């Protein structure tokens, strides 16, 4: 199973069950013998063209094949069913840290520690005096019961908005983040609670310094992934950025049939970032998780290309003879 909406499930279960093991490399779609050599020589396969599998062990030739089967090709009803099944799954999960982390509540401390180190580095590099003296605002996407907001974001941001489609998780977050249950100054608060799915949300213009997206983007089909980030860009203040923290497949993708989510590879994510018009500012691997779980990676994403240092231009030389005076 794949950790998804609202930091809820553990980063994965061992080998997705005992029925099969994930091969290190998935097979690319087969081409006719005469065409195969020419096509492969022309360009390497992208991660979306590399095969993947689902939690039942079924192999797919590529991501397009999987998405056509799961959400259809322009079939609004089928895509709605995909999202409804995902939310229905989470509606049956208890609103606790262990519940939202799929029985892996013990990874909470390591998760927050690594996220805090990553956030500190970003704030120090992106904002004068690491954002001190500035009114910082964050959006916690897939916020669940407010685990990441309470343990991390609300200590660094004056306001945090929470976005969560599962109502009983959001109601639990309201309680967890009530002023009497927080150990922060009155200058820091949970401001707004939005019970809206990612694929339907559009933020207010230039409200956020950081939009934090953790363990929820796997529920979005590729086209909605791209649409979400393109809309969400509008919500960033000048100089603002996204932080995406997600499970990483070794290659291709792994589909969780139970909660309707997908774990993408690092290369798969990078292809989607490119289509979103996002640039990787910084990335870091999560450490300290049990070996049986998927790898987890953090990405800081900006809407502008990272600045290159001002390197002195090398002197141009020519073969023209010098003038003798």
TrEMBL record:
<keyword id="KW-0808">Transferase</keyword>
<dbReference type="InterPro" id="IPR008576">
    <property type="entry name" value="MeTrfase_NTM1"/>
</dbReference>
<comment type="function">
    <text>Alpha-N-methyltransferase that methylates the N-terminus of target proteins containing the N-terminal motif [Ala/Pro/Ser]-Pro-Lys when the initiator Met is cleaved. Specifically catalyzes mono-, di- or tri-methylation of exposed alpha-amino group of Ala or Ser residue in the [Ala/Ser]-Pro-Lys motif and mono- or di-methylation of Pro in the Pro-Pro-Lys motif.</text>
</comment>
<dbReference type="GO" id="GO:0005737">
    <property type="term" value="C:cytoplasm"/>
</dbReference>
<comment type="similarity">
    <text>Belongs to the methyltransferase superfamily. NTM1 family.</text>
</comment>
<dbReference type="Pfam" id="PF05891">
    <property type="entry name" value="Methyltransf_PK"/>
</dbReference>
<keyword id="KW-0949">S-adenosyl-L-methionine</keyword>
<dbReference type="GO" id="GO:0032259">
    <property type="term" value="P:methylation"/>
</dbReference>
<dbReference type="InterPro" id="IPR029063">
    <property type="entry name" value="SAM-dependent_MTases_sf"/>
</dbReference>
<dbReference type="GO" id="GO:0071885">
    <property type="term" value="F:N-terminal protein N-methyltransferase activity"/>
</dbReference>
<feature type="region of interest" description="Disordered">
    <location>
        <begin position="305"/>
        <end position="325"/>
    </location>
</feature>
<keyword id="KW-0489">Methyltransferase</keyword>
<protein>
    <recommendedName>
        <fullName>Alpha N-terminal protein methyltransferase 1</fullName>
        <ecNumber>2.1.1.244</ecNumber>
    </recommendedName>
</protein>
